[in-house]
Amino acid sequence: MSKIVVGGVEKFSAVDFPGHLSAVVFMQGCPWKCPFCHNAPIRDIGQETDFSWDKFFEFLKTRVGKLDAVTFSGGEPLVQDCLLDIIKEVRALGFAIGLHTGGYRPEHLAKVLPFVDWVGLDIKAPFVADKYKAIVGVDHLARVLKSLDLLLASKVDFECRTTCDPRFLSIEDLKQIAKALKERGVKKYFLQKYRPIESDKTTTDDDCEHLLQDKDLLEYLNRNFTGFEVRR
Ligand code: SF4
Question: Which of 37, 72, 140, 164 to mutate to test the pocket of ligand 1 (most atoms within 8 A of CB)?
């Protein structure tokens, strides 16, 4: 078995891989610092954990025929080089594979993509280097765009989605993102409501909803993306 560093698992989820009942593996490690991150405790790799991949793999064997997929989430799953081996092991049990990523490491995405059935690609900000950096903390927009191009060129089903944090994104920003995705040929794009992190004591529910209720934006998204919805 390959060595995988995991921050936690969800044994059953109906929402992490559209149309599938999946187990979710939250892999440790993420080089970004999104201010709305709910998984900050697993961003550093190598923290102590009593999680055993071997044990979890045994659990997965008992789920064959009951669950239909395993979704790799994070953190940022593409950080760990062993992801491909792990995906192959899980796939050999007959599970479909879902992947959540920010597109941090396109060369790794290219390797795993042939073994993945669905990808959820997080789009953090408009495709402007400074704006992207302001959210993720590093100058990685080119990587994200390369990952998006890989997905567009592949036959793998995927969606793009944006966490709508009103502290950092405006309605204009969301319009800009949507327009750029449409121009590139993306078919599925979703808005996700920001749920304030523990240290954010000032953002109100109204602030969060404000971004999700702009009539022009919603019309544009409904018109241009398949099955558009706001996820609350
Ligand atoms: S990419 Fe995900 S795990 Fe990494 S900092 Fe951003 S929200 Fe957190």
Answer: 37
The pick from 33, 34, 195 for probing ligand 1's pocket by mutation, whose C-beta has the most ligand atoms within 8 angstroms, reads 34
Rounded Cα distance, 76 and 21, in Å: 21
- With a 6 Å cutoff on the Cβ, whether 9 touches ligand 1 is no
The predicted model scores a pTM of 0.96
Q: What are the chain's domains?
A: 6-165 (3.20.20.70)
Do 10 and 23 form a contact (C-beta atoms < 8 A)? Answer: yes
- Give per-10-residue mean pLDDT for the chain (232 aa): 82 96 96 95 84 91 96 96 96 98 98 98 98 97 98 97 97 98 98 96 95 96 95 95
CA–centroid distance, 65 to ligand 1, in Å, is: 32
Rounded to whole angstroms, how far apart are CA atoms 124 and 189? 12
